[in-house]
Each structure stands twice: as C-alpha cells, then as structure tokens.
Amino acid sequence: MVLLDRYLDQVKNLPPAPTVAVQLLGLFSDPDRDIDRIVELIAHDPSLTTETLHRCNDGCLTGSAPAEDMFEAVTRLGLYEIYSIVVGLMASRTMTQVRAEYRWDANRLWQHTVLTAVISSALAKRVQVAEATAFTAGLLHDIGKLVLVSMEGIVYADMVRTAGFFGPSLAATETACFGFTHAALGARLLARWGLPDGLRLAVELHHQSPATASEHLRLAAVVNFANSLAHQMADGPAGAPTAAEASSEAMELVELTDKDIPALVLQISLDLQRVHGLLHLHA
C-alpha cells in the first residue's frame, strides 16, 4: 500500500474524484430518492446538462416536443439512463487526459471499459446487485491502466503491446516492472477517493479470485467475468482462453453456464445500442 501511495503521489494529473457520480449512486440506492436533488446535482455541471438534454432530444419521437429542462429530461429518459450518461461522461473526461501520442491506448481502453460496464450491468440483474453500482465498477475497473499509461507513456504502451492488453502476462510484467498491477493501483486510487469498498474490491479483484471480497463477493464476481467476456467479445485472439475458462470461478458465482452465454451476448448487444453514445463521448 505504501508503494502504491508513493506512486500515486508522483502522478501530476490524477483523474478527478467522480463526486457527482458517487452522490447520484447514493441517491439511486435510496428507495425514497429525490428527483429534484438528482436534477440539482446534474444541473451544477453545464456539460452534463448539455449532454443529457442532447441525448434526450436526440431520441425524441417524431413530432414530440424537445425537453427544455433537466427535470423533463430525467423524467423521459429514466434514472438508469441518466446515470449512464453522467458516469460515462465523467469517465470519458478522464480518458482525454491521456496525451495525444498515447491516445490509441486510451481509445481501445475506453471501448473495453464501456463494454465491461454494460456486461456488468446485465449480469447484475442475475445476482441482485444494483445495476448502477455494477455499471460504475465496470467503468472504473481498468482506471489503473490509464494512470500507468499517463505516467509511463511509451514505456507502458510498449509493455501492453508486448504482454497483451489482457491476461496474466500483463499483470506479471507490471509487477516485475513497478511492483504492483494496474488493478491494485486502480483500487488504491478508489480508496483515496473515498469510494465504497464494493467498488474498490471489484476493481482490485477483476483478474483474481473474487472469493476474498467477502460481502461484496457478487459484485466482484460480476466485474471479473464481465471483464473476461468483454475481452473475448472485442479482441480475443485465436487460441486465447474464453471467458468461461479465464473466469470460471466468477462465472459460477454469477450463476452462469455455457448455455447462458449466447442469450447474454444477445442482451448485451441490445444494451450497447441503448448506451451507444457513450462510445463516442471522449472523442
């Protein structure tokens, strides 16, 4: 932990803590949630307001009058869609902090991040984990990679090219070079932000056994399997282990079998269409 803190202390431009997202997450978990408070939080950030209204009006049915204020936009889109927009935009801002010469890493990472978040959300329904929490954990799971590529530049970019973007070889290479993995670094950053333990453990264990997550076991298992499935769907090379092979323990914990995967992939494809705008927010 000392090593991680020393490293983070050297990073000149750490990503900002997602304060608004955490506050919204708290409101969404409250059964007596206050819509006015949700609107107020988003309205404090002009870019969030603009993007939310744009997304709402872009999807208006022919002949429908466009939404003119945040309350109307929240009512039309629904809370989960609003939350996806907010946390997606905040995460995309973090991606843009990576210098232009390393943007290829950031672009690929962003595509994988959104896919992992969508899969996490879909899996959450199966094991009674809050969708918004799972979506957030999916978006944050690889934030340690972003810190490393922004800090180490071409050194880390070459490391990823050599070891691969996914798998135990990258974690082993990171440990040999830095003394820690991107997962451990990301988890420590979330702890410094004061984010809930469940999110931190999901980030820390997305390449390890989720069994040590204790009461947050299901969330950790969701993100662990979602990460593996996202890599398999997007960029799994021939001969690479499938998600079922790479995350067999997590797969069992989220109550999935091989027969469930085709239907899950179909659902994910539909969910991706719903949040397709997130894929382009950082451009």
Please tell me about this protein's structure.
With 283 residues, the chain is mostly helical. The protein has one domain (2-280): Hypothetical protein af1432. The protein contains 17 helices and no strands. It has helices spanning 2-10, 19-28, 35-43, 46-58, 70-77, 79-95, 103-124, 131-140, 143-152, 154-163, 168-178, 182-193, 197-204, 217-235, 243-246, 248-253, 261-274. The radius of gyration is 18 Å and the shape is globular. The model has no long low-confidence stretch (mean pLDDT 83).
SSE topology:
Elements: H1 2-10, H2 19-28, H3 35-43, H4 46-58, H5 70-77, H6 79-95, H7 103-124, H8 131-140, H9 143-152, H10 154-163, H11 168-178, H12 182-193, H13 197-204, H14 217-235, H15 243-246, H16 248-253, H17 261-274
